[in-house]
Amino acid sequence: MCGRFNLYSNIDILLDQFELINGDLFEILPRFNIAPSQDVLAVIEGEDGRRGGYLRWGLIPSWANDPKIGYKMINARAETIHEKPSFKRLLTRRRCLVIADGFYEWKKDENKKQPFHIFLKDKQPFAFAGLWDRWIQAGEIIQTCTIITTEANELMADIHDRMPVILTKESERQWLDRKIQDEDQLKSLLVPYDSTAMDAYPISEFVNSPRNEGIEILNSL
User: Fold this and answer.
1) pTM here?
2) Can 145 be counted among the known catalytic residues?
């Protein structure tokens, strides 16, 4: 699964890399311990180009009666995404990128769980494949998202059996292209990222609490 990540790149880098046209409309502050139920930076394809903005992490389907369902839907499995009622219609209608610099995963080691920081070797920000939805009830509007996961690549397999889907630049383009609605084509993008382009190292348990923040989370053991 993917249950925690970070985003701390300079806003100018993010605007350029993800070709956002509305960077003057929102603020990006460094965050080192982003957790479910918090707002995350997401990108969608608008009528006039790519737009960035914030979505709450934890998908609330538009048809849900209780918004608390979002706490259970922070991830969607790539293998069954076309089957689940909560995700099937979004696959062809409401796809997004969720932007990150790195993410965290916990390796089970006997009686403890060792947290790891995982990132790209070139230390550039990247995009998770995501889905989003809009929940409206009694005048309240909540826009939420989920991060798609897949089987682990060689690097991640030593830490956990799942990993978030990290898109390549070409995959980002296709994932955001609203004209593409073929499920098989879209699912073909949801594969493990090249393990040789990634790196990981153990960090302290300071990251375990979502209340903890700061660059010191990235310190290696």
Assistant:
1) 0.97
2) no
